ParB/RepB/Spo0J family partition protein
Amino acid sequence: MKKPLGLGRGLSALIDEAVKPAAADAPTDASATREVEVGRIRPNPLQPRKQFDEEAIDDLAASIAERGVLQPILLRAIDDGFEIVAGERRWRAAQRAQLHRIPAIVREFDDESTAEIALIENVQREDLSAIEEAEGYRQLIERFSHTQDAVGKLVGKSRSHVTNLLRLLDLPEAVRGMLLRGDISMGHARAIVSHPNSEALAQAIVADGLSVRQAEDLARAAKPRNSRGNSGREADDKRPVDADLAALERQLGDMLGLRVKVAHGRGGGNVTLHYSSLDQLDMICQRLSGEPI
């Protein structure tokens, strides 16, 4: 398996490690730049960021028109042109500034390295939405066979962070769109991600302007009742500790990176861990057995 790149060393070190041997006619200095025609450059289909702040690009375009592009973009040669590995915002802004050429570093990258560097660049700037970041993680896992642990090390995040974001991809498309647009927050999404009527809950959150805590209360109140039913006495026994159990579920969920359900009654209870992949099941088994993860 390919050795994961280390986020802490900076993007330049990542690029140097990912680069294949340069072609005979290519510059050998990793910092060497060339002027590339803007029209010969195309976006990277593996770019995790799908939404761009148009106002911010306009501001960048104004700066580029006055001062030029101060930092070259990173490209790889493909077909009869070039594909962006890192720097799509600068390329878009250069187009708006009506530049015909843009400084660039051209290197040889395979698809895996291209996807990794594109994700790392965006995570370092912390401007990806939760859904875009999750999609980037899923792409590395499904397309390039990364484990969740390897992805976490690649981007300098905990495994539970990766797992929690991947759970968001289980939300209906409409709810993912709300999160992508900023209509609901990451906290809202996590509160309703396991609910069968998450789309209706998300619409209620937006319509009523609910806080995350209110969204959690709404999700609990809207949960379907157990078909076998509980006696009124058992329901009364459980009701006073619901808030404590919910807090415990959140705490355990954050620690494990999984959805956790704690059921407590007069005679005891049970703890249920929900996993969505064999990778997560393996992690649970390792933790329970005390093996290093």
User: Anything to note?
Assistant: The chain has a mean pLDDT of 79.
